[in-house]
């Protein structure tokens, strides 16, 4: 990396099904890569079958590599809080269990402070109904999801779950953050 190349940053976020978050963040300008996976649990490895039981303590997450010079962490969080419901404990729509919890796994103290501030601002704004239940936890490990989860929405957009759950989130993203999306996304 040259001195003129900005450093990339990681954000690890859980907001229900990782397919939804991946599909949204893959459209955002400044996002380098989005990886679906698991984080926050007791198990030292994770698979979809294990995490789906709700017994591992892991959440379905996306790990987002982004250019903070193009999209700062604050804006990553703005998008995150817009495309999922941060007021439902261990639930996003019909997806129920601790593996679907709303959580920010912060990578450093600056991310923790930014996330705390963003949550306070959001609660004061009245934009959400109810108390925000999004947990803030230090990042410890990320376990990449199985390859068949990669680009799930792009490969399966005709399926009912994609049409009924993911597509409305993409529409909301386009409406709220259209200027921040990649051209042709």
Short note summarizing the structure:
By secondary structure, the chain is α+β, with helices and mostly antiparallel strands. The chain contains six helices and eight strands. It has helices spanning 18-25, 48-52, 73-83, 109-125, 152-156, 160-177; strands spanning 9-15, 31-39, 59-66, 91-92, 95-96, 102-106, 135-138, 143-144.
Description of the molecule:
The protein is α+β, with helices and mostly antiparallel strands and 185 residues long. The protein has a single domain (9-173), classed as Peptide Methionine Sulfoxide Reductase, Chain A (2-Layer Sandwich). 35% of the residues lie in helices and 21% in strands. It has six helices and eight strands. It has helices at 18-25, 48-52, 73-83, 109-125, 152-156, 160-177, and strands spanning 9-15, 31-39, 59-66, 91-92, 95-96, 102-106, 135-138, 143-144. The protein has a six-stranded mixed beta sheet with strand order 7-6-1-3-2-8, covered by helices on one side. It has a two-stranded antiparallel ribbon with strand order 4-5. Strand 4 (91-92) and strand 5 (95-96) form a beta hairpin. The chain is globular and about 35 Å long. Residues 1-5 have low confidence and may be disordered.
Please, what is the average pLDDT?
92
> What proportion of the residues form beta strands (DSSP E)?
15-25%
- Elements, N to C (H/E): EHEHEHEEEHEEHH
Count of DSSP strands: 8
Keywords for this entry:
185 residues; alpha+beta; Peptide Methionine Sulfoxide Reductase, Chain A; six-stranded mixed β-sheet; 21% strand; globular; disordered N terminus
């Amino acid at each position: 990396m040259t001195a003129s190349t900005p450093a990339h940053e990681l954000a690890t976020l859980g907001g229900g099904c990782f397919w939804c978050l991946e599909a949204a963040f893959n459209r955002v300008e400044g996002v380098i890569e989005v990886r679906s996976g698991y984080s926050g649990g007791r198990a030292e490895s994770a698979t979809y079958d294990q995490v789906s039981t709700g017994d591992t303590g892991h959440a379905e997450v996306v790990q987002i590599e982004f250019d903070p010079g193009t999209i700062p962490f604050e804006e990553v969080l703005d998008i995150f809080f817009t495309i999922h419901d941060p007021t439902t404990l261990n639930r996003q729509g019909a997806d129920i269990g601790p593996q679907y919890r709303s959580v920010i796994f912060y990578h450093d103290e600056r991310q923790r402070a930014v996330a705390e501030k963003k949550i306070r601002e959001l609660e004061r704004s009245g934009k959400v109904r109810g108390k925000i239940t999004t947990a803030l936890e230090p990042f410890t490990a990320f376990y990449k999801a199985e390859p068949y989860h990669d680009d799930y929405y792009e490969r399966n957009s005709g399926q009912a779950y994609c049409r009924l759950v993911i597509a409305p989130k993409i529409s909301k993203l386009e409406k709220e953050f259209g200027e921040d999306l990649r051209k042709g996304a």
